[in-house]
Amino acid sequence: MMTLISGRLKVILRVRTSTSSFDLRVTNMFIVVFLSLFALLDGIVIRTNRGEIQGYTSYEGGIDTPVHVFKAVPFAKAPIGDLRFRLLEDPLPWDGILKATEYSTACMSNSTRTFSPQKNISEDCLYLNIFADKRCFDQGRSRSCPVVPYIHGGSFTYDSAVMFNDTQIIQKYANKEIVFVIPAYRIGIFGFLDLGNDDVVRRNVGLYDVVHALKWIKEEIRNFGGDPDRITLFGSSSGASVVAYLTMSPIVPLDYFHQSIALSNAPNMMKDGNRNMSILVAERIGCSGPGATDQDIVDCLRSKSALEIVGWQRSLEVRGSLVIQGPEPDSLMLPGNYFELMTKAPAKPILLGQTKHEFINTHEIDNYEEVYCSSYCRFFEYHTKEAIDECVRYYTNKTGRYDGEHTVEAEAIHAINYRDALLWTSKGAPVYLTSFNMVNHSKHADDLLFALGIHPQPSMNEEERFMDRSYPEVLVNFVKNGRPPEDWRPFNENGSGYYVFDAKKNGSDIVFPHFENSPFFPGHAHFWLSHLAEVDKEARSVRRTLQKDGVTLLKKTNHLHFSAFALAFTLFFVLAGVVLVLILTQKEEPNRRQGYEYV
């Protein structure tokens, strides 16, 4: 039915091309609306291992490239009640046909740090949203379509898997013979509670959620036209950090994904990073007190409402600037610090992108340098006061503290990604490094406007429209072919070679994105990876010398103390002997005198 309707509408469209552009736009709008009305009637039913699922067909990307859409596909039991804070269990099979045409609620979040809070939230949120090109289902294809699981960002405390614009996903990815999947995962305290005891409650359950979703994709995606042997894990911001963490984790099967895209990876993996927040929430909600065991605390937290818990999490953000940091070292998923684990990680192809200015100190925090120098020095394992002081001195004396040119976070992130790129390159994996430099779009996550339509603006100028077309094309090319455009060479072991995304008007022309065969932010890499490392090393060396000298001095002092004590002890007995002799002498003298008189 829909094929016949589509064919007739295409004829109408061809006839109308001779009319005005306004009439053509009206006609196109009519076609999209008309097809959308019939989309649900043209539902597609897929059989999975646990039951049948009905999606719908979308023509938002054009009538020649329809996309099958499946929303709120369950990949786990709802983590509610006794399952709160636990590792996920597989969903139960269902009878009949599961309707998958509407989004689920977003996972629990209530943060002060987002401009896009989720309207409907619930713990029952662990679903996937799947957008698959209709051509991926053709029986005559020689191979299935590549798969892209996209991990949303939001600093592990906000945003969700249901916040995206369907049209953007369909037009930029799904109708390019790709299966695009957006899984949900628990965030905030629900995903990253830390009581310091993995036997009672596992840390990093939010990461385990993503792994569980990847397991589902590996087992089921062929039913949706996807190739389980061509999976590109894609993430931005904290989602890019998830990509990095799952790449380095020793417990994630290697075949769960085969290459990755990480845009603006800003890892902040600190030991016990969520401990204070977790304990404070437990105290404020009445679950922690004298004599309470870890098990008592968890049992109590499971008895509280989700809204009450997330409310206290937000309250602590406002009052004390305490936030859930996200993943942290644990006993299984991430058994070590970031750089240790990354050194051991297997080599996989990766497209690694950053924006030129990344984070900007928009709030103009008075002690900005102290706060972030301390945080990132700790991340780089620089624990001496001298290293932190040198960092503070360096950035305090720089101009552009609040315009993004010289912020601690931006330069530290560039250094982290430079080090990761150099490490993966040394292992033989192709690394395609990028810097997004477009004017007015070079801050953290600004590129997502063009990649996914996030934070849309009312209109675009010519350069922005060009970037809106070209940026996702580069990502699609990497997904499908394992490499970006032909002129883009991999990063090399000398620390050079990256692609600059920019679009500038030069007269009537637009300057295209281009390849730079030069070092990647060399000043940032040198300061964080070399200079501060030397300062920290020297400070630790001096401290060891002082400690060694102190031990030697202590030994000498102890020896002198012993010698003095021995001398004093000897003198004491000598003096005591002299006194005793004198006393005895005094007693005998009168006797002698008395005896002489009687004789």
From TrEMBL:
Residues 45-506 form the Carboxylesterase type B domain. Keywords: Hydrolase, Membrane, Serine esterase, Transmembrane, Transmembrane helix. It comes from the Eukaryota. GO terms for molecular function: carboxylic ester hydrolase activity. Pfam families: COesterase. The keyword Transmembrane applies. InterPro entries: AB_hydrolase_fold (IPR029058), CarbesteraseB (IPR002018), Carboxylesterase_B_AS (IPR019826). The chain crosses the membrane at residues 26-46, 562-584. Its EC number is 3.1.1.-. PANTHER family: CARBOXYLIC ESTER HYDROLASE, PROTEIN CBG05369. Belongs to the type-B carboxylesterase/lipase family. This is Carboxylic ester hydrolase. It comes from Steinernema hermaphroditum.
